[in-house]
């Protein structure tokens, strides 16, 4: 099971990002655990400057926008 | 070239709808149609073109660039990049921490954050088309001055003492380790297709966010234009007494708008005889000092720092207002 963290201080785009990842994972039948990280210190720990950002199993994989469908699929499959 | 929009409004409002060009409603509607069509057309073209050019500019590169420069230049750079970097206000906390944890002084980071809401491509396009280039240049100079001045004062007061503990620690750590030889972030290599996709997404994002502000702003501006008699402000609020400026700043505080919504209102206020400095003070206060933004910064700052920043900003707006009122006979000789 993949542990996915959506990093962001709570704006609308972060919520959208989390929802889309869950939706795509559901369709592909991949088990994921999506968590929204809003703690500024935790976000700083990832050295992210533009949110929403996505980390999978503790590794930063995307930042600065709501990832599109293709990008989410690639991220989930690797 | 922009007369097209006047003709369009003439045709639509006076000919097609048959409204009387001397009636209050007729003038208001004409103003509304002309300004909204003009602004939307300009915005769509310009946001796209500008996004094409800045597709490869990201915050990591900006941060690295500022780090390499001497501190004094940093304030100007912080404010300049605040003006040109694509940046959504919901990213201000990560940006703040990203800069701070890289050892960039608080004042420079805040110069970026102060200037960012005041100057951006949308604001400039609207000012240029509604109020002309003289006014636009003055506006840019003021926005930069507010950012640079605010940042310098903050550092003089040693504002970093009042950061939240974790942020203060990160700053100190970075300040102790030399950053000079940090490798430069990669410059992304973009094809035209990448740039086009970036620009298209930016256009969609920005237009989706601001269209209602344009309608509200121009709507208010149009109502003022049609229903408030010329010279009303001069007759009722006095013209340019010193206390007008602080009143305008405090009146702008509870109003929360972005530059897009306020600029069309500014146009009408000035045309109705409100002094330019007073109008600008009102506009800055509405745009750059918003409570939601301040509440967000609370996550990384103690109350003391937040209050200090707030007071500095208000003082800056008032100084700007007084100064421009004083200078406006020379600055805007050809205006109106």
TrEMBL record, chain A:
Protein name, per record: Thioredoxin family protein
Disulfide bonds: 11-14
Coiled coil ranges: none
PANTHER family: THIOREDOXIN
Superkingdom as given in the UniProt entry: Bacteria
Keyword field: Disulfide bond, Redox-active center
Stored InterPro entries: Thioredoxin-like_fold, Thioredoxin-like_sf, THIRX-like_proc
Domain named Thioredoxin-like fold: residues: 3-77
Residue numbers annotated as active site: 11 (nucleophile), 14 (nucleophile)
A matching Pfam family: Thioredoxin_3
Automatic annotation (TrEMBL), chain B:
Transcription found in the keyword field: no
One Pfam match: ArsP_1
Name the UniProt record assigns to this protein: Permease
Membrane topology: Multi-pass membrane protein
Positions in coiled-coil regions: none
Keywords: Cell membrane, Membrane, Transmembrane, Transmembrane helix
Source lineage: Bacteria, Pseudomonadati, Pseudomonadota, Gammaproteobacteria, Oceanospirillales
InterPro entries (UniProt xref): DUF318, UPF0718_permease
Species in which this protein is naturally found: Vreelandella rituensis
Family: Belongs to the UPF0718 family.
Subcellular location(s) per record: Cell membrane
Superkingdom to which the source organism belongs: Bacteria
Chain ranges passing through the membrane: 39-57, 77-99, 111-131, 137-154, 210-228, 240-257, 269-291, 303-327
GO CC, one annotated term: plasma membrane
């Amino acid at each position: 099971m993949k542990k996915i963290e959506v990093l962001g201080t709570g704006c609308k785009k972060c919520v959208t990002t989390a929802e889309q990842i869950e939706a795509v994972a559901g369709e592909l039948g991949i088990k994921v655990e999506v968590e929204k990280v809003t703690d500024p210190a935790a976000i700083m720990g990832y050295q992210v400057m533009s949110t929403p950002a996505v980390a999978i199993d503790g590794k930063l994989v995307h930042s600065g926008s709501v990832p599109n469908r293709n990008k989410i699929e690639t991220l989930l499959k690797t | 070239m922009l007369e097209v929009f006047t003709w369009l409004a003439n045709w639509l409002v006076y000919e097609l709808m048959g409204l009387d060009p001397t009636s209050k409603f007729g003038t208001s509607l004409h103003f509304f149609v002309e300004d909204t069509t003009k602004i939307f057309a300009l915005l769509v073209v310009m946001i796209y073109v500008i996004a094409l050019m800045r597709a490869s500019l990201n915050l990591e590169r900006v941060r690295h660039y500022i780090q390499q420069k001497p501190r004094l230049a940093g304030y100007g750079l912080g404010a300049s990049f605040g003006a040109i970097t694509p940046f959504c206000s919901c990213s201000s906390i990560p940006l703040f921490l990203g800069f701070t944890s890289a050892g960039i002084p608080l004042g420079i980071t805040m110069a970026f954050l102060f200037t960012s809401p005041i100057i951006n491509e949308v604001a400039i396009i609207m000012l240029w088309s509604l109020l002309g280039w003289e006014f636009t240049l003055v506006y840019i100079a003021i926005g930069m001055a507010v950012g640079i001045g605010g940042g310098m004062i903050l550092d003089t007061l040693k504002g970093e003492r009042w950061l939240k503990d974790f942020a203060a620690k990160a700053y100190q750590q970075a300040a102790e380790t030399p950053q000079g030889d940090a490798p430069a972030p990669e410059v992304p290599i973009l094809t035209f297709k990448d740039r086009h996709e970036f620009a298209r997404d930016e256009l969609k994002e920005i237009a989706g966010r601001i269209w209602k502000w344009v309608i509200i702003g121009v709507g208010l501006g149009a109502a003022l234009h049609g229903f408030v008699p010329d010279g009303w402000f001069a007759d009722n609020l006095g013209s340019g007494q010193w206390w007008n400026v602080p009143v305008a700043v405090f009146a702008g505080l509870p109003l929360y708008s972005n530059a897009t919504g306020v600029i069309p209102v500014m146009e009408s206020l000035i045309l109705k005889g409100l002094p330019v400095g007073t109008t600008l003070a009102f506009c800055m206060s509405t745009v750059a000092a918003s409570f939601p933004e301040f509440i967000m910064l609370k996550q990384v700052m103690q109350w003391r720092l937040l209050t200090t920043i707030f007071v500095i900003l208000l003082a800056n707006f008032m100084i700007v207002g007084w100064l421009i009122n004083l200078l406006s006979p020379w600055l805007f000789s050809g205006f109106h």
